[in-house]
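Progress note, project year one: complex with adenosine-5'-diphosphate.
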Amino acid sequence: MTTTTETRPFQAEAAELLSLVVHSLYKQREVFLRELVSNASDALDKRRIEGLKDARVALEREGAIRIEVDRARRTIAIDDDGIGMSREELATNLGTIARSGTRAFLDSLRREGQTAPSLIGQFGVGFYASFLVADEVVVVSRRAGSDEAWRWRSDGQGSFTIEPAERAEPGTTVTLRLRAQQESDDEDPADFLEEHAIREVVRRWSDFVEHPIRMQVEREQDGQRVREWETLNSRRPLWTRKKEEIRREEYDAFYTRLAHDWTPPAEVVHLRAEGTLEYTALLFVPGQRPMDLFDGTQGRSRVSLYVRRVLIMEDCQDLLPPWLRFVRGVVDASDLPLNVSREVLQQNAQVRQIHKHLVKRLLDALRAMLESDRARYARVWADFGPVLKEGIVTGADEDGRISKLALFETTHGAEPSTLSEYVARKREGQPAIWYLTGAERRVLEGSPHLELFRRRGEEVLFLVDPVDEWVVEHLREFEGLPLRRADRAQDLESSAEKEAREQLDREHRAALEALESELAGQIASARFTARLKDSPAALATEEGGLSANLERILRAARQDVPKSKRVLELNPDHALVKRYLEAQAAEPRSARAQDLAQLLLGQALLAEGSPLPDPARFSKLLARLYA
Ligand code: ADP
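Model obtained:
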């Protein structure tokens, strides 16, 4: 056993974080207590779970968290009967917080301008919050199952020391020496030594902590002052209480603690199932999109599973499908075994039932919100619609319950619309729900393909979320109306139009062939169309062909995609098309005819928001055209 004290530096990132934390959090300095209490509570949970497998670790009595104050020394100590830390654990857990994503934290703080409290909440600065109020922190810890205790000490200035210590029982004591008041402090950190201050902070942040949080309080008894232990937290988990008795602020506070998110939730679903399958669920739809929603490693459910108020598993994957992974909350089931493993859960019929219920109740709640509070719903959809739509893509929408919730941008107006609303507005005899896909509404609004639909008075949806390309593959129709691309060739020709077009195509066969060969490799074919009135040309997708948008998305995801060849549709009445035909007639395949062919393609690409293969050449051609 080492008897000398060892000094080691903090990781550089930790030191940098420290100063950021202190500066961005100082207004909410009291959170240090919440963080330390949470750590103590986690340590008690860990000990209980490990204790199920290893009797040497188990705690025979009820575990507690104690807050002890020494006014003379200006110290406040948080003491627990938890799992404790070995020497190595002290060094790694408290010496670096790389595990909690330090780098990402620092970067986002810099981006967001250092003050966003929700960011801080999402990462949980934890133990480091101690240095908001302390100039020295001493941690004495003994790992459950071991006889050795260690003392970790740091002034938060870049290094820490570890030395052997004594401790009668396993657990951890974190002692903070509160620093003197500085100019930047509104209040003296020593105010936290007051009983009422501690009481208030514990109530505000840690009331639902399952373990008792105790403090020695002074009381008048028969004319004498006596000190006794008092439990500060109510310990009664919110979900076990009756819905009617819970105030909205209580739900919000619970959510904040659970999700470390200061934005109140957009929706609360609190339900109790009784009968053969007994459980309580308290679920939240967040009020804002978390930063890691689309992060591969975080794309997992965030619902914790409890059995009779005892936490069994955080982020239980089997309670909700991945397309509801933005939902946070807890499920407390009555009849599951305490030591249930992940593998067993997957097979468990009860869990599957709960899963089904929860999905239904959440979708019902969203539907009710859509009907009763459109503005709030629109925000929820903007944040989480892309995730919900994954449900359509993965085949969870047989009954249309997700597609009925979807909102899409549309030519109808500035507000997004449901498909049912679209269908209700459709023109008599309109054959399909039309849509265009692309990166941005603004670009799609200028699409030449819209000309025809404007003339016909038919609405077109703008699908601007990448996942929409897959959504429309799965969602072939809605309320009996097929979904169809508005840029697919010839869908809407009348027989007279078709005849006229074919006549034109025959008449100008040679010019069209010359155009196809000049633009070989970029288009599949060229032909006339009656759709366009203002634009000279547009690119249409052929049945089964890849859309320009999908091609763009796949390339952005670094996938190898064959360059899709589309149909160049020409407006026979447009001056640019006429010039091309004249040039061809005067001298087939002349340089002028070739230039005009490139111009026709270039403007069609620009109109749909696609990149030009050779922008320099295009701009020269354009300049020459006007010269
Ligand atoms: P976080 O809680 O977000 O992981 P912290 O900086 O608060 O980050 O704590 C770092 C780690 O130190 C914890 O994950 C835990 O392993 C350990 N730790 C902190 N406090 C205690 C404690 N009271 N008992 C046991 N381990 C603790």
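The chain has three domains: 14-231, 238-377, 425-625.
The longest helix spans residues 349-372.
No further modelling is planned for this target in the current period.
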